[in-house]
Amino acid sequence: MNLVLLGPPGAGKGTQAKLLLKGRNLVQLSTGDMLRAAVAAGTELGREAGAIMGRGELVPDALVIGLIAERTDEGGKADGYIFDGFPRTIAQAEALDGLLEERGSKVDRVIVMEVDDDALVERIAGRFACAKCEEGYHDTFRLPKVDGICDKCGGTEFVRRPDDNAETVRARLKAYRAQTKPLIGYYRRQGKLRAVDGMADISEVASAIGQALDMR
Ligand code: AP5
Question: Does residue 88 have an active-site annotation?
């Protein structure tokens, strides 16, 4: 099963991808995470991508397609992939179709999460994570049980993404509407698209996605 999670910044793609991994032999491929790792490692790719991400624009197609091509080569014994934040343009979607076809596979299902703009901004602006184990928290929805201490690893340092500021979020939303939204039609025409209400609670969204995966 190869699954694409589609939706605007803050829709819950990463959150739902992690839940979907539980009890399934799937591999999560998040181009956002891969690019942030390259930025943190200070590679040439990271330097190029970091500046673009800081502006809230999309990194060039060739660059992210290259990252995904490398990782799908390492698939091993997994039953499939959860593509989180990829593809984001028609060119990326066509490249993914080609990559999977070479491996005798295809995109099976695409889930689009629909969330109001105001909620997206609130979700993104309040998000932070443990610097040590990357456990995610939120100023409104999920604070650590003990103030300043990570529930999971006991870490005491927390970080916010540099692109989670109001100005960059606006640019990210603009890029989503202009370059990524056309993928809804692309996958709908292929009969692969299912829409879920991303405004619901995290567990309700997860169960709606579970149902959508079983639907023919
Ligand atoms: P990326 O890292 O992919 O960011 P994004 O798409 O902007 O998405 P986010 O990670 O912000 O949100 P999400 O949908 O995963 O939501 P999350 O689960 O975290 O990309 C970053 C940048 O990298 C891009 O701007 C671009 O520059 C570049 N890039 C990446 N991929 C690229 C590509 N393919 N091509 C070109 N450039 C690329 O949830 C958000 C918050 O909401 C969390 O706090 C969470 O706890 C909370 N939350 C989640 N669900 C719910 C819910 N149902 N109710 C209440 N709160 C919720």
Answer: yes
Residues forming beta bridges with residue 27, ordered by sequence position? 81
Which of 6, 28, 31 to mutate to test ligand 1, by most ligand atoms within 8 A of the CB atom? 31
Active site residue 160: no
Catalytic residue among 36, 109, 123, 127, which?
Answer: 127
Kindly report the pTM of this predicted structure: 0.94
d(CA 120, CA 69): 30
> How far is Cα 153 from Cα 72, in angstroms, rounded to an integer?
31
Q: How do residues 77-120 score in pLDDT, each as one tens digit?
A: 789 999 999 999 999 999 999 999 998 999 999 999 999 998 99
Please report which confidence band the pLDDT of residue 73 belongs to, taking 50, 70 and 90 as the band edges.
Answer: confident
Beta strands, E only, the chain: 3-6, 26-30, 80-84, 109-114, 127-130, 136-138, 158-159, 193-197
DSSP 67-87: HHHHHHHT-TT-SEEEEES--
Whole-number Å distance between alpha carbons of 205 and 199: 8
Closest CA to 212 of 105, 78, 101, 111: 111
Question: Are residues 209 and 20 in contact, defined by beta-carbon separation less than 8 angstroms?
Answer: yes
Task: Summarize pLDDT for 186-213 with one digit per residue, the tens.
Answer: 999 999 999 999 999 999 999 999 999 9
